[in-house]
């Protein structure tokens, strides 16, 4: 295709809307991390990751601190939990929708409506997950890093794949993947070598991808965009090539 999937998606998004959505997503990640492991980032790896990811989307420091304090009980806070929904979009594209919600009944209704509105079908648990592998993923700024040296350094820490990618602003990043159980080992390797991480987390990576025409791709993008406009939806994984 003439344009990459990432560039086609970026072209559909407004910067202001994207930032607002990113801040909402980051705030919920922080809230869940604090509830799970406490407000001290030094003793809560999940919170360190959430703060790291919030900084990666340029969330202001005062908003990060406010989210931590709110979740720690210094203000009213909603109880969020992570839920996953699976289904098929237009042209048979498989989708996994990750949401952080305080009301699963509301969220599943919104997700089902989005699928129906854009010619997709919400499926049951396990209906498409078998088409994906779950990896721990780290994204790095490639500036100043030697790719071959990085790979050799981290392979003993569980590095499974090292690929090129782009972030939401269209800037290049290095994407490191590892088995879910090796996430902590790879994080420790990066820390030991003083390699800064732009963002990290767990992602569903398709075992194979499906190529579509530009017109068909746009139909899938409309569904993904509609899903991501919902405040409860954190990220949508897919097997579109």
TrEMBL record:
Residues in TACO1/YebC-like second and third domain copies: 80-240
Q: Which domain of life is it from?
A: Bacteria
Cellular component terms (Gene Ontology): cytosol
Q: Which GO terms describe its biological process?
A: regulation of DNA-templated transcription
Q: Name one GO molecular function term.
A: DNA binding
Q: Which UniProt keywords apply?
A: Cytoplasm, DNA-binding, Transcription, Transcription regulation
PANTHER family cross-referenced by the UniProt entry: TRANSCRIPTIONAL REGULATORY PROTEIN YEBC-RELATED, TRANSLATIONAL ACTIVATOR OF CYTOCHROME C OXIDASE 1
* HAMAP family documented for this protein: Transcrip_reg_TACO1 (MF_00693)
Q: Which family does it belong to?
A: Belongs to the TACO1 family.
Query: Which protein, by its recorded name, is this?
Result: Probable transcriptional regulatory protein ENSA7_58450
Species name? Enhygromyxa salina
């Amino acid at each position: 295709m003439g344009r990459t999937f990432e560039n086609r998606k970026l072209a559909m998004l407004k910067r202001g809307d994207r930032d607002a959505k990113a801040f909402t997503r980051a705030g919920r990640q922080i809230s869940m991390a604090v509830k799970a492991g406490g407000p001290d980032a030094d003793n809560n790896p999940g919170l360190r990751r959430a703060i790291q990811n919030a900084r990666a989307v340029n969330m202001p420091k005062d908003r990060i601190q406010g989210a931590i304090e709110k979740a720690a009980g210094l203000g009213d806070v909603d109880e969020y939990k992570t839920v996953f929904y699976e289904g098929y979009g237009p042209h048979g594209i498989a989708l996994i929708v990750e949401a952080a919600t305080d009301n699963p009944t509301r969220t599943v209704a919104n997700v089902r409506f989005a699928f129906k509105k854009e010619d997709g079908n919400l499926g049951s648990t396990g209906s498409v997950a078998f088409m994906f592998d779950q990896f721990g993923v780290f994204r790095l700024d490639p500036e100043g890093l030697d790719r071959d040296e990085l790979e050799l350094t981290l392979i003993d820490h569980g590095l499974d794949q090292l690929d090129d990618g782009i972030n939401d602003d269209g800037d290049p990043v290095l994407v490191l993947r590892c088995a879910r159980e090796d996430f902590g080992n790879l994080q420790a390797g990066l820390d030991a070598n003083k390699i800064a991480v732009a963002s990290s987390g767990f992602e569903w990576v398709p075992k194979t991808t499906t190529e579509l025409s530009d017109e068909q791709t746009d139909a899938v993008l409309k569904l993904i965009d509609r899903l991501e406009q919902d405040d409860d939806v954190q990220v949508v994984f897919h097997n579109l090539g």
